[in-house]
Write a structure and sequence with these properties.
Layout lengths: L17 E10 L2 E12 L10 E5 L2 H10 L1 H9 L3
Antiparallel strand pairs: 1-2, 2-3
Length: 81
């Protein structure tokens, strides 16, 4: 994955609950794709632009973030917006 690589993004109305992917840069500028689960969509939330509740399901990302910051574990597993 490079900085110049173009990616399509969905409009809020096109987002569906279920398996999805995020791109995250954690180590040395290396971007990686990780699996998540979109648990809930908030279509009418325009105030703070938090339009979905996600759960990180990718073990690699969970392992990396637990090592670096325990707060990520709480946010990914227990956060309810």
């Amino acid at each position: 994955m490079t900085d110049s690589e173009e990616m399509e993004v969905a409009l809020r109305s096109e987002i569906k609950e279920g398996k999805a992917y995020i791109i995250c840069e954690l180590e040395n500028g290396k971007k990686e794709q990780y699996e998540i689960e979109i648990e809930r969509i908030y279509i009418s939330n325009n105030y703070d632009n938090k339009s979905m509740l996600i759960k990180v399901t990718d073990k690699r990302l969970l392992d990396k973030t637990r090592r670096h910051n325990s707060r990520y574990e709480w946010l990914t597993n227990y956060s309810k917006w």
